[in-house]
Specification:
This protein is α+β, with helices and mostly antiparallel strands. It has helices at 90-102, 122-126, 132-145, 161-180, 223-232, 255-264, 318-325, 362-367, 369-378, 384-387, 397-407, and strands spanning 28-33, 39-45, 56-59, 74-81, 107-110, 117-121, 152-158, 192-196, 208-210, 240-242, 246-248, 253-254, 290-295, 300-305, 334-337, 357-359.
């Protein structure tokens, strides 16, 4: 027997109309994530008898316990059971949290995975918003939109630091396992890539193309996830794209992709390259995990993640970069990408690949350490990791150049970045 949920039982208005709504300074009551506190999301498959359908548990204080201007940590843990539900569907459900939470009037949601950001407005508080309403919404919408695969939904919201941290550790294990499922695949292995147009409500011309060696720039969707999403919803935002004729193997451009992107962007973007940030890069939307930028005097590139709020050698902080690039345009010299993509085989390979990387925030570098070392070895520079500068070396090109020279960074002896 399938449960039919038609009501979304919350005191605020709810729907796509509120998706693009911003919660700005004067209107802000409290917030979590966004580099200020930890905010993490995880969807996990559960056994039928393990969870109770519709149950929403709040572990810790609610927003009503906080004073205006305060921050709090948040863990959103969703368990789904269903006879047809597979582990492969977890990332797809998890990525829905972004737009579904945004559908709540007066609530803003940015990001995904362990870099989410939720802002609660004064208006929502006046209407009686409780964090439990996030659970109510996810329960109702997961039943409505994914009837075929969902039988039971239980949501736990953690707001105590130690519990959020524990959930975050579990979530990171899961993200890693998902990301590594495509590690053994190359773009040459498949004839079909997948589109993702989930972000068009924010960036109308933006079309992500996801290949085995280029995960979606939000980090939440890899090639396998897109394939599973298409299986669940054949008319949804993830469509197969036949690569078709290869126009440029070095930069990564295919006729089939161009045709698709041209149509899906309504003519705004006629073509782009998978493996270049210098020449007609892929379009970028506001949810990217990282943004790479050229550093011409170092003949290399840098990248910065959403969770690093400091200055960078390209002269812009992450938030500024995201503001400028995140509208869904292709911006030569810059590209949004996922964390995982940095160490995927085709990462800006048309521009020289990971060997061009001269600066990363320390935190991001350390997070990816094992993978950077492995990629460096595969590319013939086993000590690449130690040659990449971070903010402890400097935050301008002038400051990091002597370090790169001293370390003999490979980018310095490569062809000029701009040809
Ligand atoms: Fe899809 Fe790209 Fe948006 Fe991620 S960033 S949800 S892959 S359109
Ligand atoms: Zn997006």
């Amino acid at each position: 027997l399938k449960v039919n949920v038609t009501e979304i039982d919350i005191p605020m208005a709810f729907g796509p109309a509120f998706e693009g709504e911003r919660v700005r300074g004067a209107d802000l009551h409290v917030q979590c994530g966004g580099g200020k506190t930890q905010c993490t999301e995880l969807v996990k498959k559960a056994e039928m008898n393990e969870i109770e359908d519709g149950k929403v548990i709040l572990e810790g204080p609610d927003v009503t316990d906080l004073k205006e201007g305060e921050t709090f940590p948040l863990g959103i843990f969703v368990q789904i059971a269903g006879r047809e539900f597979q582990d492969d569907f977890e990332p797809i459900m998890e990525r829905q949290i972004h737009h579904l939470v945004n559908y709540i009037q007066g609530i803003m949601h940015i990001g995904q995975r362990d870099i989410s950001w939720v802002r609660v407005s004064k208006g929502a508080m006046e209407k009686g918003f409780s964090l439990k309403h996030i659970g109510t919404v996810l329960y109702a919408k997961f039943h409505q939109d994914f009837q075929k695969i969902v039988d039971k939904v239980q949501v736990t919201l953690y707001t105590k630091t130690d519990e959020v941290d524990k959930m975050t550790a579990l979530a990171r294990e899961n993200y890693l396992a998902r990301d590594s499922r495509v590690d053994a695949m190359t773009d040459e292995d498949v004839d079909t890539f997948y589109s993702c147009t989930l972000c068009q409500s924010f960036a109308p011309n933006h079309v992500c193309s996801v290949s085995p060696e280029r995960t979606g720039l939000c980090g939440a969707y890899n090639w396998m996830d897109c394939r599973a999403a298409f299986e669940i919803n054949p008319t949804g935002p993830n469509q197969p794209i036949e690569k078709g004729e290869c126009i440029d193997p070095k930069l990564g451009q295919w006729k089939g992709v161009n045709d698709f992107v041209n149509k899906a962007s309504r003519g705004a973007v006629t073509h782009y390259n998978f493996y270049s940030m210098v020449t007609d890069p892929m379009t970028t939307c506001g949810c990217c995990e990282c943004i790479a930028a050229m550093l011409p005097s170092c003949n290399g590139v840098m990248t910065v993640g959403r969770d690093y709020s400091g200055d960078t050698p390209c002269g812009m902080k992450f938030t500024t970069l995201a503001g400028v690039m995140g509208g869904g345009a292709s911006s030569p010299g810059f590209v949004g990408h996922s964390k995982h993509n940095i160490t995927q085989g085709k990462f800006i390979l048309g521009d020289g690949g990971l060997l061009r990387m001269v600066w990363m925030p320390k935190m991001l570098k350390e997070e990816l350490k094992d993978r950077i070392v492995a990629r460096g070895e595969a590319m013939g520079v086993p000590d690449l990791y130690d040659k990449i500068a971070d903010e402890s070396v400097g935050i301008t090109e002038e400051e990091i150049l002597p370090f790169l020279e001293e370390k003999g960074h490979p980018a310095l002896s490569m062809d000029p970045l701009i040809g």
